Amino acid sequence: MLHRGNLRRVVGASAIAVLLAALMAFYVADRAGAGMGRCQQHRADARERAAIVTGDGEPVLVIGDSWSVGLGQDDPARSWAAELPGEVHVAGFSGSGFSAGASGCGRVSFADRASAALDTRPQLVVVEGGLNDVDQPAAAIERGFRHLMADLAGHPVVVVGPAAAPSRAAMVPRVDELLADLSEAFGVPYVVTSDLELDYLADRLHLTEDGHEEFGTAVAERIADLDPTRPEVLRN
Fold this sequence. Notes:
alpha/beta; single chain; 6 helices; 236 residues; Rossmann fold; 5 strands
Protein backbone atom coordinates (compact mmCIF):
# COMPACT_ATOMS: atom_id res chain seq x y z
CA MET A 1 0.00 0.00 0.00
CA LEU A 2 1.25 3.46 -0.90
CA HIS A 3 1.55 6.07 1.79
CA ARG A 4 -0.19 9.36 1.10
CA GLY A 5 3.10 11.16 0.44
CA ASN A 6 4.28 8.46 -1.94
CA LEU A 7 0.92 8.51 -3.70
CA ARG A 8 1.17 12.24 -4.25
CA ARG A 9 4.65 11.80 -5.72
CA VAL A 10 3.48 9.02 -8.07
CA VAL A 11 0.46 11.02 -9.19
CA GLY A 12 2.63 14.09 -9.66
CA ALA A 13 5.22 12.19 -11.68
CA SER A 14 2.49 10.65 -13.83
CA ALA A 15 0.96 14.04 -14.50
CA ILE A 16 4.34 15.43 -15.51
CA ALA A 17 4.95 12.45 -17.78
CA VAL A 18 1.56 12.93 -19.45
CA LEU A 19 2.21 16.65 -19.87
CA LEU A 20 5.64 16.04 -21.39
CA ALA A 21 4.20 13.45 -23.75
CA ALA A 22 1.49 15.87 -24.84
CA LEU A 23 4.01 18.64 -25.39
CA MET A 24 6.25 16.33 -27.40
CA ALA A 25 3.31 15.19 -29.53
CA PHE A 26 2.35 18.82 -30.11
CA TYR A 27 5.95 19.68 -31.01
CA VAL A 28 6.24 16.82 -33.49
CA ALA A 29 2.89 17.63 -35.05
CA ASP A 30 3.79 21.29 -35.26
CA ARG A 31 7.12 20.54 -36.93
CA ALA A 32 5.43 18.16 -39.36
CA GLY A 33 2.79 20.72 -40.17
CA ALA A 34 5.41 23.39 -40.70
CA GLY A 35 7.34 21.07 -42.98
CA MET A 36 4.22 20.17 -44.94
CA GLY A 37 3.31 23.82 -45.27
CA ARG A 38 6.77 24.70 -46.49
CA CYS A 39 6.76 21.92 -49.06
CA GLN A 40 3.29 22.90 -50.24
CA GLN A 41 4.51 26.46 -50.71
CA HIS A 42 7.56 25.23 -52.64
CA ARG A 43 5.27 23.21 -54.91
CA ALA A 44 3.04 26.22 -55.50
CA ASP A 45 6.07 28.38 -56.28
CA ALA A 46 7.38 25.72 -58.66
CA ARG A 47 4.07 25.61 -60.54
CA GLU A 48 3.93 29.40 -60.72
CA ARG A 49 7.45 29.65 -62.15
CA ALA A 50 6.88 26.77 -64.57
CA ALA A 51 3.92 28.65 -66.04
CA ILE A 52 6.16 31.61 -66.88
CA VAL A 53 8.02 31.46 -70.19
CA THR A 54 10.52 34.21 -70.99
CA GLY A 55 12.21 35.18 -74.24
CA ASP A 56 11.79 33.68 -77.69
CA GLY A 57 13.68 31.45 -80.05
CA GLU A 58 14.81 27.88 -79.49
CA PRO A 59 13.38 26.36 -76.30
CA VAL A 60 15.74 26.15 -73.32
CA LEU A 61 14.91 24.20 -70.17
CA VAL A 62 16.37 25.20 -66.80
CA ILE A 63 16.25 22.55 -64.08
CA GLY A 64 17.20 24.07 -60.76
CA ASP A 65 16.55 25.08 -57.19
CA SER A 66 15.20 28.18 -55.43
CA TRP A 67 17.49 30.43 -57.46
CA SER A 68 15.78 29.33 -60.65
CA VAL A 69 12.34 29.66 -59.03
CA GLY A 70 13.20 33.17 -57.87
CA LEU A 71 12.51 32.60 -54.18
CA GLY A 72 12.35 35.89 -52.31
CA GLN A 73 11.55 37.95 -55.41
CA ASP A 74 8.37 39.95 -55.98
CA ASP A 75 8.36 38.86 -59.62
CA PRO A 76 9.55 35.26 -60.19
CA ALA A 77 9.65 35.96 -63.93
CA ARG A 78 12.83 37.93 -63.23
CA SER A 79 14.80 35.06 -61.75
CA TRP A 80 18.27 34.64 -63.25
CA ALA A 81 17.03 32.14 -65.87
CA ALA A 82 15.27 34.97 -67.71
CA GLU A 83 18.70 36.31 -68.71
CA LEU A 84 19.35 33.28 -70.91
CA PRO A 85 18.69 33.69 -74.64
CA GLY A 86 15.94 31.59 -76.19
CA GLU A 87 12.46 30.59 -75.06
CA VAL A 88 13.24 29.75 -71.45
CA HIS A 89 11.20 27.26 -69.42
CA VAL A 90 12.00 26.72 -65.74
CA ALA A 91 11.52 23.51 -63.78
CA GLY A 92 12.68 24.65 -60.37
CA PHE A 93 11.96 23.51 -56.84
CA SER A 94 13.25 25.33 -53.76
CA GLY A 95 15.56 23.26 -51.59
CA SER A 96 16.20 20.61 -54.23
CA GLY A 97 19.51 19.45 -55.62
CA PHE A 98 21.36 16.67 -57.37
CA SER A 99 21.07 14.34 -54.38
CA ALA A 100 17.79 12.79 -53.27
CA GLY A 101 18.40 13.92 -49.68
CA ALA A 102 18.93 17.60 -50.45
CA SER A 103 15.22 18.27 -49.93
CA GLY A 104 12.84 16.98 -47.29
CA CYS A 105 9.84 17.42 -49.60
CA GLY A 106 9.87 13.99 -51.18
CA ARG A 107 10.99 12.98 -54.66
CA VAL A 108 11.93 16.40 -55.98
CA SER A 109 15.62 15.98 -56.86
CA PHE A 110 16.72 17.14 -60.30
CA ALA A 111 16.61 13.57 -61.58
CA ASP A 112 13.13 13.03 -60.14
CA ARG A 113 11.80 16.03 -62.05
CA ALA A 114 13.78 15.84 -65.29
CA SER A 115 11.61 13.47 -67.34
CA ALA A 116 8.42 15.47 -66.86
CA ALA A 117 10.24 18.73 -67.58
CA LEU A 118 11.39 17.45 -70.96
CA ASP A 119 7.83 17.85 -72.21
CA THR A 120 8.94 21.36 -73.21
CA ARG A 121 11.07 19.72 -75.96
CA PRO A 122 14.17 21.79 -75.18
CA GLN A 123 17.07 22.25 -77.57
CA LEU A 124 19.25 22.77 -74.52
CA VAL A 125 18.98 21.80 -70.84
CA VAL A 126 20.72 23.98 -68.25
CA VAL A 127 21.00 22.34 -64.81
CA GLU A 128 21.71 24.82 -62.00
CA GLY A 129 22.34 23.86 -58.41
CA GLY A 130 24.58 22.45 -55.72
CA LEU A 131 23.96 24.79 -52.80
CA ASN A 132 21.45 22.37 -51.31
CA ASP A 133 23.87 19.47 -51.71
CA VAL A 134 26.62 20.90 -49.53
CA ASP A 135 25.75 18.67 -46.56
CA GLN A 136 25.12 15.54 -48.63
CA PRO A 137 27.56 12.62 -49.06
CA ALA A 138 29.55 12.54 -52.28
CA ALA A 139 28.05 9.15 -53.12
CA ALA A 140 24.51 10.57 -52.94
CA ILE A 141 25.43 13.49 -55.21
CA GLU A 142 27.13 11.14 -57.68
CA ARG A 143 24.11 8.83 -57.70
CA GLY A 144 21.71 11.68 -58.38
CA PHE A 145 23.98 13.10 -61.08
CA ARG A 146 24.20 9.73 -62.81
CA HIS A 147 20.42 9.29 -62.77
CA LEU A 148 19.96 12.82 -64.08
CA MET A 149 22.32 12.26 -66.99
CA ALA A 150 20.49 9.05 -67.86
CA ASP A 151 17.19 10.94 -67.97
CA LEU A 152 18.72 13.71 -70.11
CA ALA A 153 20.48 11.38 -72.53
CA GLY A 154 20.23 12.66 -76.09
CA HIS A 155 19.79 16.29 -75.04
CA PRO A 156 22.52 18.96 -75.04
CA VAL A 157 23.23 19.67 -71.36
CA VAL A 158 25.18 22.34 -69.49
CA VAL A 159 25.69 22.10 -65.73
CA VAL A 160 25.95 25.36 -63.76
CA GLY A 161 27.65 24.94 -60.41
CA PRO A 162 26.89 26.72 -57.13
CA ALA A 163 27.90 30.28 -56.36
CA ALA A 164 29.61 30.97 -53.06
CA ALA A 165 26.55 32.17 -51.15
CA PRO A 166 27.92 33.63 -47.88
CA SER A 167 25.90 31.33 -45.58
CA ARG A 168 27.32 28.21 -47.28
CA ALA A 169 30.51 29.49 -48.88
CA ALA A 170 32.81 27.31 -46.76
CA MET A 171 31.08 24.16 -48.02
CA VAL A 172 30.82 25.10 -51.70
CA PRO A 173 34.34 24.11 -52.91
CA ARG A 174 33.79 20.40 -52.24
CA VAL A 175 30.55 20.28 -54.21
CA ASP A 176 31.91 22.57 -56.91
CA GLU A 177 34.89 20.30 -57.52
CA LEU A 178 32.76 17.15 -57.41
CA LEU A 179 30.23 18.49 -59.92
CA ALA A 180 33.04 19.63 -62.22
CA ASP A 181 34.59 16.15 -62.12
CA LEU A 182 31.24 14.46 -62.72
CA SER A 183 30.47 16.77 -65.64
CA GLU A 184 33.81 15.95 -67.22
CA ALA A 185 33.23 12.23 -66.71
CA PHE A 186 29.84 12.44 -68.45
CA GLY A 187 31.11 14.72 -71.19
CA VAL A 188 28.94 17.75 -70.42
CA PRO A 189 30.19 21.35 -70.10
CA TYR A 190 30.47 22.75 -66.59
CA VAL A 191 30.08 26.44 -65.76
CA VAL A 192 31.85 27.60 -62.61
CA THR A 193 30.11 30.43 -60.73
CA SER A 194 31.81 30.18 -57.32
CA ASP A 195 34.05 33.13 -58.23
CA LEU A 196 31.17 35.54 -58.77
CA GLU A 197 30.54 38.37 -56.31
CA LEU A 198 26.78 38.72 -56.15
CA ASP A 199 24.20 40.71 -54.24
CA TYR A 200 22.36 38.64 -51.63
CA LEU A 201 19.27 39.03 -49.49
CA ALA A 202 19.54 39.25 -45.69
CA ASP A 203 19.54 35.44 -45.41
CA ARG A 204 22.94 35.44 -47.18
CA LEU A 205 21.71 32.55 -49.34
CA HIS A 206 19.24 33.90 -51.88
CA LEU A 207 19.80 36.59 -54.47
CA THR A 208 18.37 40.09 -54.65
CA GLU A 209 16.82 41.26 -57.90
CA ASP A 210 20.18 42.74 -58.92
CA GLY A 211 21.88 39.51 -57.87
CA HIS A 212 19.64 37.49 -60.18
CA GLU A 213 20.46 39.77 -63.08
CA GLU A 214 24.18 39.57 -62.33
CA PHE A 215 24.12 35.79 -62.01
CA GLY A 216 22.00 35.24 -65.11
CA THR A 217 24.11 37.56 -67.24
CA ALA A 218 27.32 35.86 -66.10
CA VAL A 219 25.93 32.37 -66.73
CA ALA A 220 24.70 33.32 -70.21
CA GLU A 221 28.10 34.80 -71.08
CA ARG A 222 30.03 31.83 -69.76
CA ILE A 223 27.85 29.34 -71.60
CA ALA A 224 28.33 31.34 -74.78
CA ASP A 225 32.10 31.17 -74.24
CA LEU A 226 32.15 27.38 -74.17
CA ASP A 227 33.92 25.37 -76.89
CA PRO A 228 32.82 25.74 -80.54
CA THR A 229 30.54 22.69 -80.30
CA ARG A 230 28.20 24.52 -77.94
CA PRO A 231 24.54 24.62 -79.03
CA GLU A 232 23.79 27.54 -81.34
CA VAL A 233 20.77 28.42 -79.22
CA LEU A 234 23.14 30.10 -76.78
CA ARG A 235 24.57 32.56 -79.26
CA ASN A 236 23.04 36.02 -78.91
